[in-house]
């Protein structure tokens, strides 16, 4: 059931249009991430939902209520920013209590709610500390508790993890997801980190220059990118140019090797060029493999990445990366060696845009 609806949202700063006609409905309790490179407009959309920016056009409805005429403090929204933005002169308890105090809630209710929130973020023992006495991760958990304390209808998270180091980032994102599911709160999360978005979202909006290129579940976005931009932004991917041999049988050539695809090539004719996508983890080396789902090439590099060895081989004009899982007995192919990569017909995607 639609809980947050964005209809034809647009935003220009002077003559520059930064959000183009954006449409989306978000369900109650859903966790949606806006993912995209710097400057694509994701923060601007979040700020419009919060009321910090006024849309140039379109409407924002939360739980059947148009937010158009509401100021930020009249909206029932909790927000967490990248820079923790805690009140430096207040201790943890007072930071978390802030929204409830402003709303004029009774003292006993505030005490109970703050205790509950500090329990949720597991920082009950630090209630008397001031922000400067906390680590970055602890400060961000307090910011989360402060945003949640007044029981907002929607939680907005603007790159809340980007200022933290890698290990804390991973543990805090898991904690955020657990708390979000526990409370069932509708959440919009902005990030430029694809792994982050893939790991915690119900759905992802991949933004490209002010528009959504694709909206889907993490698996849909990863397994079936609908545009070249999504394909290259989400995960590591080989983009391979191929020549159409026979559109009726989905047969193409890569260099001088023929391959038959599972999915239709679309409106193309023999001799046209099409773009294919292949994830590095899709194939495996199979010496002597032949036929429609194998490619042979010369190894140009091999890099040890820990869990995998990423090897690149040249096939015609394309260089194709593929991963070999690390194991004690693994002997990666040497540069200059000829290897054959076998994959399944569904691994090769046709990118139409
Ligand atoms: P980042 O991850 O860098 O924050 P983003 O995708 O969130 O990127 P936005 O912050 O939404 O991008 O900005 C989108 C575009 O709008 C950028 O080109 C930015 O320079 C511009 N912009 C944002 N706020 C303003 C403003 N107040 N005045 C003028 N231009 C702005």
Any key phrases for this structure?
single chain; 353 residues; alpha+beta; Rossmann fold; OB fold (Dihydrolipoamide Acetyltransferase, E2P); 2 domains; six-stranded mixed beta sheet; five-stranded antiparallel beta sheet; 20 strands; 24% helix; elongated; binds adenosine-5'-triphosphate; P-loop_NTPase
Provide structural commentary.
The structure is a single chain. This protein has 353 residues and is an alpha+beta fold. It has two domains: 2-232, P-loop containing nucleotide triphosphate hydrolases (Rossmann fold, 3-Layer(aba) Sandwich), CATH 3.40.50; 236-351, OB fold (Dihydrolipoamide Acetyltransferase, E2P), CATH 2.40.50. Helix content is 24%, strand content 35%. The chain has helices at residues 42-50, 92-102, 107-120, 136-148, 166-183, 194-200, 218-223, 228-233, and strands at 2-13, 16-27, 31-35, 57-62, 65-66, 77-80, 154-158, 186-191, 203-208, 211-216, 238-246, 251-254, 257-260, 273-278, 284-285, 294-304, 308-315, 318-325, 338-342, 349-351. A six-stranded mixed sheet has the order 6-7-8-3-9-10, with helices on both faces. It has a five-stranded antiparallel sheet with strand order 13-12-11-14-20. It has a five-stranded antiparallel sheet with strand order 15-19-16-17-18, with no helix packed on it. Strand 17 (308-315) and strand 18 (318-325) form a beta hairpin. The chain is elongated.
């Amino acid at each position: 059931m639609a809980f947050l609806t964005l209809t034809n949202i647009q935003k220009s700063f002077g003559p520059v249009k930064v959000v183009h006609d954006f449409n989306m409905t978000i369900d109650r309790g859903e966790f949606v991430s806006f993912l995209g490179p710097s400057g694509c407009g994701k923060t601007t959309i979040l700020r419009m939902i919060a009321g910090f920016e006024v849309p140039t056009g379109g409407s924002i409805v939360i739980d059947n209520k148009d937010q158009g005429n509401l100021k930020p403090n009249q909206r029932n929204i909790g927000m967490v920013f990248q820079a923790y933005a805690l009140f430096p002169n207040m201790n943890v308890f007072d930071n978390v209590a802030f929204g409830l105090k402003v709303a004029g809630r009774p003292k006993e209710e505030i005490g109970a709610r703050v205790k509950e929130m500090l329990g949720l973020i597991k920082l009950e023992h630090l209630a008397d500390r001031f922000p400067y006495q906390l680590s970055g991760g602890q400060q961000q958990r307090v910011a989360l508790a402060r945003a949640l304390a007044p029981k907002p209808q929607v939680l907005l998270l603007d790159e809340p993890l980007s200022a933290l180091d890698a290990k804390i980032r991973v543990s805090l994102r898991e904690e955020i997801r657990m708390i979000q599911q526990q409370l069932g709160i509708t959440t919009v999360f902005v990030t430029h980190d694809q792994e982050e978005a893939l790991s915690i979202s119900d759905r992802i909006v991949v933004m490209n220059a002010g528009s959504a290129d694709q909206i889907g579940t993490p698996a849909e976005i990863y397994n079936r990118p609908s545009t070249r931009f999504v394909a290259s932004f989400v995960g590591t991917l080989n983009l391979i140019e191929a020549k159409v041999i026979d559109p009726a049988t989905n047969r193409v050539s890569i260099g001088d090797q023929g391959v038959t695809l599972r999915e239709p090539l679309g409106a193309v004719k023999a001799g046209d060029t099409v773009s294919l996508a292949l994830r590095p983890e899709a194939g495996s080396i199979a010496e002597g493999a032949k036929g429609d789902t194998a490619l042979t090439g010369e190894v140009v590099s091999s890099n040890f990445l820990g869990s995998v060895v990423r090897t690149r081989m040249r096939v015609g004009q394309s260089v194709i990366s593929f991963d070999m899982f690390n194991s004690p007995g693994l002997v990666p192919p040497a540069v200059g060696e000829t290897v054959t990569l076998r994959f399944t017909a569904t691994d090769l995607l046709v990118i139409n845009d």
